[in-house]
């Protein structure tokens, strides 16, 4: 085991100990429970404290989980709840169109797949849950970006990651991407015409929470031989309707 891996393993061990404790723990107790030297425990706690993963009571100097780890926990719970709410509608959509249905969220300029229902006719298409993909060349990503102010997506997508090309149809120009996002807003759904180089066509619509904020996206995807260009308008309406149904379950009153 490398030193870096050992350090990560020890840090997570401390996080787990604090997460299972019903009260603040002192450094000696943490060291004892983690079976680590006191000096090592102190060094790891100092790093975790700096990063916001633990916090320290200023009066007792004892530790508990920090706000950052609690925020991550809340995000995981929200995504799990979203998947539970969406799954019956995703299955219904797949039954209607016969193609694979995906659910994804946006994270730092990339999409993250959180649920999937395999299509009846899909062969050789498999998307791992948790997989990340660029937002600028996926229908899921583009429909979520289209609902953000430009200064938000420009920083995460253009400045931080760049408009990397994956195929001849990938958008690599900021102006073209800006126009594509405008078209997406106007029609209510986004389209990916093989932009990731997989000869796949996708159609995606936004999902909103009770505040109206876009929190995820739903897509229909399949080989371009099955999802032909003439099917896109109908599939766009189908995915929008399904996404609206999920939004309603999250408390958003859809007015289409």
Polypeptide structure, described:
The chain is α+β, with helices and mostly antiparallel strands and 256 residues long. The protein folds into 2 domains: 3-65, Winged helix-like DNA-binding domain superfamily/Winged helix DNA-binding domain (Arc Repressor Mutant, subunit A), CATH 1.10.10; 74-249, Beta-Lactamase. The chain contains 8 helices and 8 strands. It has helices at residues 3-20, 27-34, 38-51, 67-97, 139-145, 150-161, 174-187, 232-249; strands at residues 54-56, 63-65, 100-107, 110-117, 132-134, 190-193, 200-208, 214-223. The protein is elongated.
Features:
256 residues; Arc Repressor Mutant, subunit A; Beta-Lactamase; 2 domains; 6-stranded antiparallel beta sheet; two-stranded antiparallel sheet
Helix and strand topology:
Elements: H1 3-20, H2 27-34, H3 38-51, E1 54-56, E2 63-65, H4 67-97, E3 100-107, E4 110-117, E5 132-134, H5 139-145, H6 150-161, H7 174-187, E6 190-193, E7 200-208, E8 214-223, H8 232-249
